[in-house]
Amino acid sequence: MTDVAVVKEGWLHKRGEYIKTWRPRYFLLKSDGSFIGYKERPEAADQSSPPLNNFSVAECQLMKTERPRPNTFVIRCLQWTTVIERTFHVDSPEEREEWMRAIQTVANSLKNQEPEADPMDYKCGSPNDGTGAEEMEVAVSKTRPKATMNDFDYLKLLGKGTFGKVILVREKATGRYYAMKILRKEVIIAKDEVAHTVTESRVLQNTRHPFLTALKYAFQTNDRLCFVMEYANGGELFFHLSRERVFTEERARFYGAEIVSALEYLHSRDVVYRDIKV
What we know:
By secondary structure, the protein is α+β, with helices and mostly antiparallel strands. It has helices at 93-113, 133-136, 185-190, 194-205, 237-244, 249-268; strands at 6-15, 22-30, 34-38, 53-56, 61-65, 72-79, 82-89, 152-160, 164-171, 177-184, 215-220, 224-230. The protein has six helices and twelve strands.
């Protein structure tokens, strides 16, 4: 088994996710993709005190910007089933380039290490009898058309997180493309995310709006939950913003109207969702 090494470490200013203040954090970037932040510099790499920040740069996207501060960069990655963004800034363009190069190198290394496996092996595994498994049964709709793993061709990996993967699939019967979230039950239970999973599933099953991603099918295997979602092949807003840098006022107004319309619809159904993905 390969030892996990510290690839790069140092002080970064990290912007808060909810209270938008900047705070210094000492970060360790490790070869397994871990990106861990501490309030103080740890005495050793095996620091026993819990970190303040802990996420993975596997399958991440990077963007540099000069706002809201000079020498800022953004890391975007998949955590749970949510795409998260974390914003940092450093003192110089050179330091920013060093961090971004190191992060991208680790992400590329992890991608190259992944074995080429038949996507159908996601349905393999032993039954899970752990606490919470019965509650997750309600996450699979009883009223939607039935589907199984065998109803799809598995084309490519779209994203990977702690709880599972998102795969681009093609429905054999119709030829339509979808994004399939395949989540591991045992990890959901171990991370105490059963309630989160059930809530997200219920919201998806009970919403219909042109600017919200639709849930087409939901089913399960012995050890996986599978959600077959509408595939938005235009790409994420983050991708277009990183390419264009600045949107025209007309384009920003168009995107803003779509987002507000979707949020108003959710609020009208008494749904408040914290982690918006656009």
